[in-house]
Amino acid sequence: MNSLKSLSVFLLPIIIFIAGTGATTTSTPSSSSSSFIPISQWRTSFRNLTAACRNGDSYHGLSSVKFYLNRYGYLEDSESKTYDDLYNDGFRSALMAYQKNFHVKPTGQLDKATLKSMMKPRCGVPDVGGISIIHGRNLFTLFPGSPRWPPTHTSLTYGFSSNGVSITTDVLSAVLARAFQRWASVTSLTFTEVSISANPDVTINFYLGNHNDGYPFDGPMGMLAHAFAPTDGRLHFDAAEYWIGTVANVESPLLTSSNMAIDLESVAVHEIGHIIGLGHTTIRNAIMYPSIAAQVRKVRLTVDDVRGAQSLYG
């Protein structure tokens, strides 16, 4: 995990996304978040936490929210790697940072809007820990140190394994080719599919739960996928999700057949953004926004996404 050595997410200060500041935050999956809590357990705890919280009081289930905020970079690691149910200033500050990034009124309270946001499916890459570049109303982020694929190596290869997912190989190939091409069309990068056994630059796999990268998946409708900063090249999807994909560049009718259906291409485009060096943005319609709802197809790069990619690759 070469990229992880310099990307220790949760040891960095929390810096809130605020227009006009010189730095915001993002990072890659970190070994400090290796604990596994199923998303179903988080949701059970979250639903019981809509009462107003007072400083110094304890609320059953608040520890799950602290774990969530830690996982996504808003709250530093505890020395014991566990969290209590105490509402305090540190928790309130972390919660307000989260609320600002996700366009929820920053009250520092666990209101319904905040908990609803936390229960949405999302990318597993933390929101906190990197560098922001501000262009008017557009804000994109880069990983710490602004890692990129070197100018001498912009013709990248990728390979995938279909193990663990019911989508056929031909559909996976078509979906991934389109997703990579969206970034290639606005940068100097090119992407070519090869066998995963050919040691490609980018490896794509579907895994369940703990898959030994320090960042376990948590079950359906939770953490959808995660990827690592250049030049690591790993992209992992949660095999527990109900993934939908098509050979043709159209929305599948299956996408609206289930309230748990997730569009594979939408998530792939987002994760490839991480593969080339982009972090998360607070622009809601951008590809690099951290969360996406079920039954939604979102594959077109926005100005924010393009400017981010071109800041690295021109």
TrEMBL record:
Its cofactor is Ca(2+); Zn(2+). CDD domains: ZnMc_MMP (cd04278). A motif (Cysteine switch) lies at residues 121-128. PANTHER family: MATRIX METALLOPROTEINASE, METALLOENDOPROTEINASE 5-MMP. Zn(2+) 2 binds at C123, H270, H274, H280, M288. SUPFAM superfamilies: Metalloproteases ('zincins'), catalytic domain, PGBD-like. GO terms for molecular function: metalloendopeptidase activity; zinc ion binding. GO terms for biological process: collagen catabolic process; extracellular matrix organization; proteolysis. Belongs to the peptidase M10A family. Matrix metalloproteinases (MMPs) subfamily. Residues 145-314 form the Peptidase metallopeptidase domain. This is Matrix metalloproteinase-9. Ca(2+) 1 binds at E241. The active site is at E271. Zn(2+) 1 binds at H211, D213, H226, H236. Ca(2+) 2 binds at D201. Keywords: Calcium, Hydrolase, Metal-binding, Metalloprotease, Protease, Signal, Zinc, Zymogen.
